[in-house]
């Protein structure tokens, strides 16, 4: 396992603009976690003193929050306010001394940085396999810029049709009724709907006191906007994990370097 890919190789390259690409001097074998850290460090280069920041949730976003804490401690960032997307991130940020607030006090966020479970070529996302989709969607939807950080394994042709879960947050009241409505709505895509379980086989409970149904789809959903609307119309559904047309930029770390894609144009590394 090689550790030699130094994210500062990217971070210190003055020639890079936000939409450029960095490649390491030679290919190296990196763990998935190292790739996540590289993407996260690159995203933190967008952070400026005085910003209100949406702080994401998950193993990739954790690296970004750590890095923001480190830069604050070193005095390289000042007057940052973080808006955490989960209780877990809130605890991490507090432990790092990052000042925190919420959407009530800061309804407009300068920049959010978060991971994703799947990213399609149009920068549509599946999120929420870590359980925080509702707060993530509220906070990232209120952001002027939303930077998504992933390792290259998260890139897919179509979101949601990979048999991996599309999470849907539902109210606990009569959850079987809602899960069945969801299954039947998405039946045409070869859908199974499974209640997410947590510790000791009990239902996983979100930070908002809700349950999650994981929708396993065999086929891609085609018109994502139509499916999104139909899911949200079901009584009992609180939110789903499709983040359509929300990401401004996606930073993808791979064995051959970092690729940055944004809504308007894409660059590729060689
Ligand atoms: O949406 C999320 C949490 O609800 C995460 O961003 C997503 O699950 C990616 O997680 P990771 O960075 O650990 O792969």
TrEMBL record:
Domain of life assignment: Eukaryota
CDD domains: RPI_A
Pathway the protein acts in: Carbohydrate degradation; pentose phosphate pathway; D-ribose 5-phosphate from D-ribulose 5-phosphate (non-oxidative stage): step 1/1
Protein name: ribose-5-phosphate isomerase
Pfam annotation, one family: Rib_5-P_isom_A
Catalysis: reaction(s): aldehydo-D-ribose 5-phosphate = D-ribulose 5-phosphate
A GO cellular component entry from the record: cytoplasm
